[in-house]
# Entry
Amino acid sequence: MTDPGMILLGQTLSFCGDPFVVPPETTLRHEPRGAVLVRDGRIAAVGPAERVLRAPDAIGCPVVDHGNKLIMAGFVDCHIHYPQIDVIASYGTQLLEWLDRYTFPAEQRFADPGYAAVAADFFLDECLRNGITTACVYCTVHKGSVTAFFERAAARGLRMVAGKVCMDRNAPAGLTDTATSAYDDSKALIDTWHGHGRLGYAITPRFALTSTPEQMDALGALWRERPDVLMQTHIAENRDEIAAILEAFPHHADYLTIYEHFGLIGPGTVLAHCIHLTERERRALHDTGAAVAHCPTSNLFIGSGLCDVHGLHGPPGPVTMGLATDVGGGSSFSPFATMRAAYEVAQLRGATLHPVQAFYLATLGSAKALRLNDRIGNLMPGYDADIVVLGLTSTPLIARRMTTITEIWEGLFVQMILADDRAVDTVYAAGRVVHGSRRA
Ligand SMILES: [Zn+2]
# Structure
């Protein structure tokens, strides 16, 4: 029997352009009384309610009325670490010491697949509670941590991307692999999980300080064999990190060229941070099509620096960029807190991040970074029905402030500055309720 479908009613919001290229307000399509027709896990139609409700294929569909709430694409977090749920809010360190003191001990617990499965469930609950329907996830060095994560994500029907962290130096013995085992384990995980349901794989060397040239060479070879998967790592986060990297790779003039040398940079590369870049690196990001994961709460919390978001969209041409929480370096799972921090980081650099740009980075921009912008990140016919329904009056202060706005983009700004998980009313994944009061 074919799916009878379902119609969601409420305010609807979608993008019809890139707000970094044309005036941001012109890239929004907002219907004050809109409707989304969902069928077979996909969006079949979006538009004014009266038009969608009268369409022949909508006749007889059950209707879910979300009232005056805002229906939009689920948030996409293009860089996060699921094993770091016990590391978030760790006191008093910057990157390299933070890794040694907090992160590496926490990640060693994921040698136990049972522990990993429980943590993965907690992590996914937290993502959904905050309206994140897709994330690009670092697991740990343990193959079982990836299996546990994918199993839990598959059980919920989510579109998630993840990879086994590869480290063969400068990490505790319990967290290291080798060049050969990193290649073999990653390849086996790709064969099992990439394309299974809605899951995708990302080859994941943690960063150049924890991978030997031999390991990066092996992972570059794997990516050449499987260019359909993503490649994620960290770069140019912290000045001490950069100094250590250039000492470890004395024959390379800058950080990015190391990854380039091993064939790890191109379309499908997702590079977290990109704060302290040389002019050559910045140009190479544009030329190669590698994407930037902007992690503003993490960059503020660990004291790493201020990413030049606007500069990265300027000459010699824009880079692909998404927004990311980077939990547990990041201090919140909330896309609102992350957009707020992105706004504040831009302010400290003397630039202004428009709310439409912020919401774009947190949805379609991140989807583009993950090469999924034809599937998720927007309310469009044919896209996955990964949808978040936001209450726009989730606290007394927000409710009061919303009475003063006249344009939807102003309302989005109020939300990104003041809202939190209380604004996330209902979350749908492939058309099924996965979070909220309407969950069966
Ligand atoms: Zn990270």
